[in-house]
Amino acid sequence: MADLCRGRHLVLLWVLATLVTISSAMPPPNPIKCDQTDCQLSNSYGIWGDRKICHAPKIVYPTTEEELRQELANANKNNLKVKVVTRFSHTIPKLACPGTGDAAVFISTEKYDSTINVDVEKRTATADGGVGLRKFIDTIEKAGLSLVAAPYWEGVTVAGVISTGAHGSSWWGKGGAVHDHVIGLSLIVPANEADGYAKIIKLIPQNPLFNAAKVSLGLLGIISKVTFQVEPAFKRSITYNFTNDSDIEDEFMEHTRKNEFGDIQWYPSRHTAVYRYDNRVPLNTSGDGVNDFLGFQSNLILLSKSVRATEKGFENTRNVGGKCTMASSFVSYRKLIGNGLKNNKLIFTGYPVVGPQGKMQTSGSCLYSSPIDITNTCAWDPRIYGLFFYESTAKFPASKFGDFIRDVKKLRDLVKPENMCGVDIYNGFLFRFIKASDAYLGQGEDSVVLDFNYYRANDDLTPRLNQDIWEEIEQMAFVKYGAKPHWAKNRKVAFLDVQKKYPKFNKFIAAKNQLDPKNMFSSEWSDEILFGKRTVKWDGCALEGMCICSEDRHCSPSKGYFCKPGLVYQEARVCRFSSSSSS
Question: Which residue, 147, 149, 152, is CA-closest to 126?
Fold first, then answer.
C-alpha cells in the first residue's frame, strides 16, 4: 500500500507540473567549464561512461568558416589534437574527448551559427555547422519548406546530427536517418604548409569521400557547412494506440509500411504496445498542434529529485513491487496526456493531433529556458541530482528483429514480467525505423532501431536490481543478433568488434587516413569506440558496462552478484544476484 501511495504521489506531482508548465525554466548547464589553465568537457548527464574527466588546455570560439580554418591550421602547425565541441553535448561515448595529454585544443562552434541559406526553387537549405537544429527547422518552415527527417531530441547542431547517424523513424522515401537527406557538405581538413596547414573541401554525392563524411564521428575534419534536400512544407497527423503486445513481433513491419513516420513503444512489464500512427497530411489540414514530448519538457526540480530518490530507494531495498507501481503509474499518465502531444499548443484534448512538420518532428522544450526560474529544468540536469540512467540503442537488420523480440518475451516469461518494470519507468523499448544507407558507417540494410533506458547507480561499484536482465538483453542485441550500436549512445560493451559489422569500414578508415594522416582528430577514446577494442578487465568492470564479465570479480561478489550464463541467451555472461550468497 505504501508503494502504491508513493507512486500516486509522484504522478500527482507530475500532473501538477504539467498543468503549470511555463516557457521559462533553468537552462541546461554549458558543457564546457574553463579556468585559467584548463577546460573540461562534460556530456549532458554530467558523467561520462568511464566517470573520468575530459579536458584540454584551451578552447577557441571561431565565428566564420575562415576563422575555423585558421584555428585548425594553427593546431596543425603546433601538432595539437583537435576536437570540435558545441553548445550542446549529448553524445554518451567520449567521441568529443581529445585524450589524456595536454597537446590538444577544443574548437567550439557555439558562435559559428549565423548563416542559413534557403533556395526555395531548388528545395535546398545550407547552414553553418554550428546552427542548432531548432533554428534550422524554424527558418526553413518560414520559407514554406520542411526537413523530412529529424531526431526526436532537437538539442543538436546540423553538423553534430549527421556526424553520429542521428535519426527519426521512417522507411519511406530517403528514410529516417538525417544524413541520408544531405546532398552536400564542406569539410575543413589538415593540409601541408604550402596550402596553409588547413583547407576547405566541398563534397557532393559524386565525390568518393562523401559517403565517409556523411557519418564521420568527428574524425575526418571540421564540418563547416551542410546542405540538405528539403520538401514543400506539410503537416503531420499523430495518434497513439495503447494495446496488447501479443503480436508485436509480427506486426512491426506492417506498421512502418503503413505509417510514414510510425514508431512503436513497448512496455514489456505491462504487456502493452503503443503504436504511433503518424503520417503527413496536406498543409491546409485543420490543426495547429505540437509535439512537446513529456520526457523533454522542463520539470519541477522537486519532481525530478523525488522520482530519482524513490527509484533509488526501491533499488537499495530490492523492491520490485515499488518499481512496478512507478511503471504502471507513469505509463497510465503518458496515455492520459498523449505523451506530450498538444492539440492547441497548450494541452492534449484528443486524437488525432495535427500540426506543422516543424513542430511535430522533434522536441526539447527544456533547452530553451531563462535562468531566472530556478525551480524547473531538464529532468536529467546533473546540477539537481535528478534522473540518471543508461541509454542503450541497437540497430537490427529488420529480418532479425522479430526473433529478438521473441527472445525478450521468453526472458520475460522466465523471470516474471514484474522484473522488467525498471525499463518501463522510463520509456520502455522504443522501436524506430531507418532505411539502408550509402554512408560507410551507416546501416547497410533496412533496420529497426531499439532504444531503452534503465537505472544507473550513483557510483561505479554499486550493482543494480535485475542487472542481469538488461545485460542479457544488451548481449542478445549486440552479440547474438549482431545489432550495430548507435554511435552517440550506449555503454562500452556495445562497441565490441563493431568494425566487423560494417562491410565498408575499411573504406571509412582509408578516407580517414587520407584526410587526417596525422590523426589530429583521433584519440584513445575514439579508437576504443571505432575499433571496439577489448580492454583489460578489472574488479567490478561489468557493473558499468565497461566489460562483459568472465569471472565473479568482474561483478560484485561481496554484494551477492556473480558472473553467470544468460537464461535465454546462454552464451551471455551477466552479473546475477544470489540472495543465498550475499553478505
Answer: 147
